[in-house]
Each structure stands twice: as C-alpha cells, then as structure tokens.
Amino acid sequence: MARLKVHQDKIDDPEALVAVCPFGSMSVKDGNVVIDDSCRMCLNCVNTGPKGAVEFIVEKKKKPLKKERWQGVAVYVAQVDGEIHPVTYELIGKAKELAGKLHQPVYALLIGSQVQAAAKELQHYGIDKIFVYDDPKLARFAIEPYTAVFERFIKQNKPNSILVGATTVGRQLAPRVAARMRTGLTADTTILDMDAKSTDLSQIRPAFGGNIIAHIVTPNNRPQMATVRYKVMDAAPRQEEISGEIVEKKINEKKLVSNEKIIDIIPKPAEQSIESADVLVAAGRGVKSKAELDQLKELANLLGGQLAGTRPLVENGWIDVRQQIGLSGRTVRPKLIICVGISGAIQFIAGMDNADNIVAINNDPKATIFKSAHYCLVGDQSDIIPQLIADIKARKGE
Amino acid sequence: MAYKTFTKEDYTAILDLINDNDRVLYQDAIQEEYGHDELGGTESLPDVVVLAASTADVSKVMTYAYENNIPVTARGAGTGLVGACVPIEHGILIDISKMDQILELDEDNLTLTVQPGVLLMTIGDYTAEHDLFFPPDPGEKSATIAGNIATNAGGMRAVKYGVTRDFVRELEVVLPTGKVVTFGGKVVKNSSGLDLKDLIIGSEGILGIITKAVLKLLPAPKKVISLLVPFPTLRQAIDTVPEIVRSENVPIAIEFMEQDVILDAEEYLGKKFPDHSADAYLLLRFDGNTDEEVEKAYQPVADLCLKQGAVDVFISDTQEREDSIWKARSAFLEAIKGSTTDMDELDTVVPRSKVNEMVAYFPEVSKEQGIRIKSFGHAGDGNLHAYMLKDDLSEAEFQKRMTKTMELVYEKAHNLGGLVSGEHGIGYAKKRYLKETMDPVNLELMRGIKKTFDPKNILNPNKVFDV
Amino acid sequence: MNILVCIKQVPGSSEVKVDPDTGLLIRDGDNVKMNPYDLFALETALRLKKEKGGEITVLSMGPQAAKAVIEEAFAMGADHGALLSDRRFGGADVLATSYALSQGIKALGDFDLILCGKQTTDGDTAQVGPEISEYLEIPAVANVTKIREVTDETMTVEMDMPNQLEVVEVAFPCLLTVEKDIYQPRLPSYVLKKATADRKIPIYSLDDMDDQDENNYGLSGSPTQVKKIFPPETNTTQTMLEGTAEEQAKKLTTTLADLKLI
Questions:
Q1: H-type helices in chain A, by residue range?
Q2: Whether residue A219 sits in one domain with residue A93
C-alpha cells in the first residue's frame, strides 16, 4: 500500500505547503497540515514541497516482476469481415520501431473467421509472427470470446507491449483484456517510445479534452498496453516480398461462449452534422457560382469531409442553414477546415478558430481570414481548387 | 433638400484626406453588404465608403461633407434590423468597424474606454479576464459598441441591470459640422446642464458619429444559473412575470418562449432542447458570487412559479446546460428565419403589466390577417419580438398583409401605453409607425434638436423621422 | 428493472492549463460538476425506468464533496445513491478505479443493468466501463447509440462499429456504455431537489468491500504511473503556400498528406 505521511516538524510555512497541492486536498487543521480524501497522489507535495515534509511510503509485498520474461511487441489486427483497418498498418510501423530498440520480435494477433487472406496480406509488412485464431464463432466482434482469445494469446506468448487501434472495437476490447491481465492500459496515446534498458514503454497522451498532455509509464506490470487512434502513427510500408510466419492457433470451443447475439448489421446513417465532421470545406462570399460550389463539395467528399459555409451563402439559398458556421450558426472544431473565398468576419472566425488546421484560400492578401489561418494560399480559388482536386485524386490513386 | 451629386472629384478629395487607397472604397470596390443591414429590407448603396481609422479621419471627412453638402451615414458591424445604417441618399458611408481598440481600463473608476468599432463580444472577453463585466447583453454579440449605443440596445439582462444608456459615462462625438466634442464624463453623477450624452444615446446616428466611449463596468458575478420553467399555458407563464418582478430577488433576465419556436430552434440547430413537453416556458436567469447565494436568490422565485401553476422548475447550472438552453434562445431569430421564405420584425415594448394582452393579441391578428406570426421575448421588461412570416405568400400579398398587421399591432401597443421600439430602433423601416403613434409635439421637439445638431440635414438623412 | 449508473464529479471546465514553470495543474478548485457524458447514461436509465419500471441507483467514487453529483442525480430522478470514499482509493488509475467501482457495485447488490457514460471529460480514457464489466464478469456493449427493445431477459441495442452499426441482443445482467446524444439529458428538477434533500447517501470505504487487500486499490493498485504532465504545443505557426496555382495546390496536397488528412 502506498501512502503519504506528513512530517509536521519539517514544515516552516504550512500555508505555503498547502498551496502546492493542485487539487486543493491539503489544509491546515489545528496548526497541522492534513491531506483529505480528494488526494490524487500526484506527489507534487513530495516533489515540490519543503524537503522531507511529505513522505511517500510504499509498502510492497508483491513479487518483483521478471520483466525479461516478457518479450516482443504485439499488434492487434483490427478487421471486419477480413478487411484490415488501416490503423493496423500504422501500429505495425510503430511496433517495428519499438521492438527494434529491444531487438525483440513483432507479433500480430488476428482474430476472426476466414481471415487467411488477411493473414497473408500481413506477411508483406515485416512481422515476425502472425498468430491467427480462425473460427466461425469469431466471425463478428463479441466481447467475451474475443477477450478469451486475447487472454490466451498473451498467456502463451508473453509480449512486452501490445498496441491496439482505438477503433470502436479496440476501445472496448483493450480495456477488458487489460482488466483481465490486471495490467495498465493507456488510451489514445499520441507518442510511444521504448526505453531499451528498463523495457518500459513511454506513453504520451492528451487528457482534459486535449488541454493537458500526460507522460505515462507502466513500470511494474506486463504486458504494457496502449491504444492509438487512426492517423496518428506512420504506416509501415508494404513490401513486395513475403516475410514472417503464420501461426494457426486453435482455442477450446467452450471459451467462445457469448452472452451477446448479433441480430443485424445495418449501414451507418451518413454523418450529417458539420459539428461532428473531421474535415470541412467552407465556402464564403468569394465563391461566385454554383459550379464552384459543386467543386468544393467534390473536394469535401475527397477528403471525407463535409461542405459548410458562411451566412451569405445561406442567404442566397446555396447551402442549408444547418451548414452555416459562425456565431449565429454552428461552432465547429474539425481536424481540418479549408476556407475558400471567405473574408474572415468575426462571426465566422469565432465559430471555427479552434480547428486543428486552418487553410485559407483567398485572392485578397489582406483578407482577415489569413490572420487565423495556419496555411495561407493567396490566389484565385477557381485556379487552385480544380488543381487541388486533381492532385488529391492522383495521390489517392484514383 | 438637394444634396451635391457625388463625383470622381469628391472621391479624389476624400482619398487625399485619408491618404490610404485601401481605406477608401469607390464604385466596384464597394461590397454589396454596405447597401443593407442584417435584416436587409432596406437597400441603397453609398457612393463611397471610408474605413475610418481615427477620430481625425471621421472629422476630416465630415467637414468635407459639410462644406460640400454631401450626405453621410455611419456604419458599425451592420447588425441592425431597421435599416438605420443604410445610406438612403447614397453619399459617404463611414465604416467605423476598423476603429476597434480598447483604449483604457480604469480599475479605480471601473470604466472602460473604447473605440466605437469594438465588438460587444470583445468587450465581454476582455472584461471577463479582469473579473469585470459590461451588463448590457443584446443577443447579437458581433455588434459594435457604437451601434449598441446608437440604438440604446437592451438585451437580456435589462430586468436587473438596465439598458446600454445606464452604462455609458462619456462619449466623444463628431458633429455634422466635423467638430469633435465630448459629452458627459467619467463621473457617477451629473447635473451640469442638459445631458447631451443622453441625446446621442439612441439617436441612431442622426445627431453625430460616436468615435469614443467610456463605459461603466461592474464586478462580474462569479456564478450564473438559469431556471427553465414549464407552464401549461402561455397565459399562466406571463401572469407570473409581474409576481416575479415584485419579488425580492430580481432575476437578471425573464424571457418567455413557446413550444413551436423551441421546435424550430431544435430543427435549426439539430440539437434537442432539454425539455419541450410544455406549451410555454419562462426562462429566468440569476447571478451572484457563490452557489449558495444564487440558490438562495432563486428559491423563492421557484416556489412562486410552482404556486402559479408551473409544471416544474428545471435548474441549469453547468456550461453544457446553459449552452443547451441559451444557444437555442440565441438562435430563435435564425431558426424562425430558416422556417420561412422571408420575414419582417416587430420590436414593440409595452408596460410589463400589459405583456399578456399584447402576447394574446398576436395569434388574434395572425388569424385575422392571414399571416403567420411567431413571437418570443423579454417578458421581464415588456419588450416583445414578433416576426411576420412570408411563407408561401406572393411578395405583394406579403407586403400588404404585413403592413396591415404592423399597423394593427403598433396601434394595439400604443393603446396599451407602449412604444414602437424597445431596442432595435426606428431607422428607416419603422419611421411611419413612430409618426403614427408618437405625439406630434414630441416629434416637433425631436426635429428641433436634429436641426440644432445638423442644420444641413446631411447626417443619416431620412431616418427616425422626416425633418 | 434494477439499474445502476456510474457517475463522476469532474472539474467544471476542461479548460485547465499547466503552469509551464512548475508543471502544476492550474484549475478552479471549487467549480465542479457531473461528468457531462454520465448525464447521457443517467438519462438512458431514467427512460428505461419510465418504460419498464424498477429502480435506479447511482454510484460515484471521490471525496466527500462528490456527494453533490449524487444529489444532482436524485434531482433528475435517481432513487438511490452511494459514494465510495476513502483515502486509500486515492491516486487510482483506470484499473484501480474500475476495480474499486466493481467492488462497490458488488457491495450494493444485484443489478440487471449497469450504465456508464462513454468517457469522462478529465481522464478521457473511455476505459472504465469495459474494465468494470470484466471484474463483474458480465457481457458489455460499448458505443451504444440506440436502445431498440427491452425484454425480461435481454435488451437489444445498436452499437457503433467502425463501418456499420451492429444490432446486438445482450442478456442481463450486462453493462452498457452509451454514446453522447443517445438522449438529450433532462435538467435537474427543483421539485425533486426539494423532495430528496433529506435522502441519505451511504459512504462506502475499503472496509465495506469484499476484497480488503489495500494493494488492489488506489495508487498501489494502479499499474500506470503519470511521470509528468505538461501543456500541449499549440499550432500557432503560419505557413504561406506560394507560387502559381499549380504549385500552391501541390504544396497544399503535400501538407495535407503530411498531416495524414488525405
């Protein structure tokens, strides 16, 4: 049990020590500094308070972990009906880098039904061993059997670390597995690194809605688990030659019992609201014709996003009021917004200036929009947009 | 009165005065938005637009206009609803929106000195950083402070704090002659002759152009919570308002809203309102410095509402909850706009005791004249916003029915002891209704004042009343 | 139906900052609220109760002051509440938090359905719900966007999947984590607030748990450790993409590709 002990005799100024706590968990009672149960054990009082005033006491009775028994970096293969989700290749890229620092192998864990083709495809990515659990009962994701398979994989192979894509499946499977293994799991990591000496995985993730970044380690437990969102890491390149071994595994049918039944699979309703779109192409007054607007719609589609706009376009009936960004419209926070022919009225800016990446295309170099943009293109959109569409198509191989 | 026709020479002369090509817009460079305001019912483009950067700019241009008998109109963010900033006689439009600097925060006197183009939202953000606030709270946060002063804007905190007029200490004004004067002062009391500052407030740019303002601030309340109170009928809701106003702890806002407007806002925003099961709602807002203080303030009012037949009293005490209510409230105008093809608005104000009669009259006149009317508003201060919707009517038919409806509503308001406009102003669009309902003696006094300030009638002519 | 809803008290605003010099969290200490995502879980419970009857219990873990969120749940219509509060629970990561909550749930009784919000606004992990279900050894469905049908033994829900929605029938007892906007949460009622003002909220400490091994709770029971917190880098740089239209388009395409936006 870890706890904090306050040594009152080492405190000169109790109020100063109390002020150190970022959670307001310390107070002065009868001249003594006390810690209440809102304490988050951030240890700030230990580290930045007067020396020795607060002592961090760890009474360990656990067996020391034999870290060297845990070898290799594993990637959970996100797949639906044999189709591999691209986040998998990004995780493989990262796993190879991490395993490389330890001189340990990279594993892939593939769970599903009739996934032989997917396993073969994975052989193009330089994985050492691809473990395949193929069973009709595993055709679709179900939490209980998938967790059972995952558990078996971990127990048999003892990987040092496991990376899981933060897809809707990964985000429920990974924590269930972590709880079963009684190990740590860090959600939505953005940076991962491996310390070759301690074999500890260094995990960086945002918290508080991205307002804080935390550096997290799992020093006393194995495997170390982390989920990673799509489009965060760099994908491993596909190689022509085949490498790695496909290891077909069987699992006892009794382990594949599920209390859930998939009754139907239905298409997702198309994402309508501009507030939830990751990518927006926003049109302003500078867009002079319906044809130009159609081009922007095409651009939005190419980028997997949606078309939005400013008030004048709503007023002349070109876009719906639900697509209007701004103080009197909707507030958006996409990963990317491309503002085309928008001058940058404050009403509009206030509705989008929290976007991660703002691109502005406008022929007026003095347009206010450029003050808020990260990427500025001064020029005529009717020249730039068709070119941009062609380039993106080319890059996507269409 | 005939004005001088604006020529290329005038343009060159003004360009010489300003000496910046980018700040004097002529012919094709004039964007069409300079020809209308937010509602867009009144349209007329200026001959030239001057983007003023200083009081001196305004004064120089005004002097030139005075000497050459050219009409001048001042414009802020163009968020008005009655065409007050539309240059009916063309001529020069002075856009003050680039004069957008906060000049001084005087924490000893609790005043904020600003240029005229500072936006309300900027003032809100800036004062919040210093734990202060500027109480007037019109829905349109992207309006300029000068525009707010020129219309004596009210907004949603009027019940407790009053209107813009109550928070202006001093104004720097460029007169129609080009002369720069200062009215009022950084003082709390003032008994020094006629209050010219108060004449400028609400004068809709016909007496002078505001180039600097000293605003009065208050310490910001730390907690704000709202009560959303569902009532079985609108009548019960509105009947409760005078009781609330009489109670010890006055809310900062008392708004009323009906189910159909809420449904429009849900549709418009694509978000559900926290409750839409009742026919009518009162929305009350309280502020204070601690949760306990605010809770103590609202409890008697909540009990009162229940006694008056409220179905329940819902408490909104977090940012998410406040957003879910007030974002919808702020979107009412846009939502109603989105539900029809075209519309016009009414901004009548009646004594608080007459709100119920006025509200009851809307469905009556709507049925009688065959025009859809939606209303919501500041029940606590008697300022009612009603919107007449065009829907499938032909333009001619819409104009006909709307005009008739407006006449009837203004007449009704007048009979109830009310006035044409509570906070949007008269501008161009509501001129005839002011004339029809205002005592001629009052109008004559107004004309006299206009003449004293602007003998040549060159500043924002054709607005508010005919000279 | 006997429903338990997990709720958490979080800072009133996620606009917290890290002092770049001291590495301390700067936040408004007394401004707290119920985790907004939990409101969707509670609303789901209230709708189910209205349709199927039964009772709703809310459970929270935190300091004594976290009673406020339980009282708030009462004002929204919850029937019972309990708070896990013990200094020995302090410093818990996801695993230790989930474990303590699952122990608390076991101590409170048997439930047909356990509802959790998708995530919290402070931790942001979305992991506590699935981990609780593991400790309780019950099936769980995450990302529930809609409840279709409820029978005596099962419920049928729509689960958000990467490319589709899956309609899943799950047997009771089970745990669901619901998506934001599954229902618009109601506001707390003043009438209920007054009516429930005297309702007792029992406090559970480690001594009330079935497993009393301190090593499974709090910091000791947490495999992950926060080494450091720091403010994010903000994207304030501005890049001009110049040249002919063709060159500009090329540069933008490359930029978008580098940002993984293509």
A1: 14-20, 44-48, 87-102, 116-122, 143-157, 170-181, 290-302, 311-315, 346-352, 369-372, 381-396
A2: yes
- Looking at the structure, give the CATH architecture of the domain made up of residues B8-98: 2-Layer Sandwich (3.30)
Residue C96 has pLDDT above 90, yes or no: yes
Identity of the residue in A168, A221, A379 whose CB atom sits nearest the CB atom of C161: A168
Query: Does a structural domain hold residue A124?
Result: yes
On whether the CB atoms of residues A188 and A174 are closer than 8 A, the answer is: no
Terminal CA-CA length for chain B: 10
Give the residue on A whose Cα is nearest the Cα of C142: A172
* Interface pTM, i.e. ipTM: 0.91
**Omega into C173 within 30° of 0, i.e. cis?**
yes
Alpha helices in B377-439, H assignment, sequence order: 395-415, 431-437
Kindly list the residues from chain B whose CB atom is less than 8 angstroms away from the CB atom of residue C14. Answer: none
Burial of C198 (0-12, 13-18, 19+ CB in 10 A): exposed
Q: Verify that A133 and A40 share a domain, yes or no.
A: no
> Under an 8 A CB cutoff, do B121 and A346 touch?
yes
Segments making up each domain of chain B, as ranges: 8-98, 102-219, 223-328, 340-440
Q: Which CATH architecture has domain B223-328?
A: 2-Layer Sandwich (3.30)
Calculate how close chain A gets to C191, using CA atoms only, in Å.
31
CB atoms A80 and C26 under 8 Å:
no
Q: How far apart are CA B363 and CA B237, in angstroms?
A: 16
pLDDT in tens, A141-185: 999 999 999 999 999 999 999 999 999 999 999 999 999 999 999
Query: What domains are defined for chain C?
Result: 2-216 (3.40.50.620)
Chain A residues whose CB is inside 8 A of the B33 CB are 312
| CA atoms C85, C90, C95, C99: torsion sign | negative
Q: Which of A322, A345, A350 sits opposite B270 (nearest CB)?
A: A322
Question: Which of C93, C164, C246 faces A184 most closely, judged by CB atoms?
Answer: C93
Q: Which CATH number fits domain B340-440: 1.10.286.20, 3.10.360.10, 3.30.70.2740, 3.40.800.20?
A: 3.30.70.2740
pLDDT in tens, A361-394: 999 898 889 999 999 999 999 999 999 999 999 9
Residues A307 and A169 in one domain: no
Segment 208-227 of chain B within 8 Å of chain C by CB: 227
- Closest Cβ–Cβ partner in C34, C36, C187 for B315: C187
Q: What whole-number distance in Å separates Cα of residue A108 and Cα of residue B407?
A: 78
- What is the per-residue pLDDT across C118-142, written as a single tens digit (0 to 9) for each? 999 888 899 999 999 999 999 999 9
Q: Which of C183, C190, C196 to mutate to test the interface with B (most CBs of B within 10 A)?
A: C190
Same fold, B8-98 and B340-440: no
Q: Which domain holds residue A234?
A: 67-256
CB-CB neighbors (< 8 A) of B119 in chain A: 346
Contact A187 C126 (CB under 8 A): yes
| Average confidence score pLDDT of chain B | 93
Residues A190 and A289 in one domain: no
Angstroms from A321 CA to nearest CA on chain B: 7
Q: Are strands A279-283 and A306-309 parallel, antiparallel or unpaired?
A: parallel
Q: Is B319 in the C-facing interface, judged by CB distances under 8 Å? A: yes
CB-CB under 8 Å, A2 with C25: no
Taking residue A234's Cβ as centre, other Cβ atoms within 10 Å add up to: 12
A202 has a pLDDT exceeding 80: yes
Helix segments in B174-278, DSSP class H: 196-200, 234-246, 259-269
If one counts every other C-beta atom within 10 angstroms of the C-beta of residue A37, the result is 18
In angstroms, the Cα distances linking A170 to A81, A107, B231, C120 are 16, 17, 47, 18
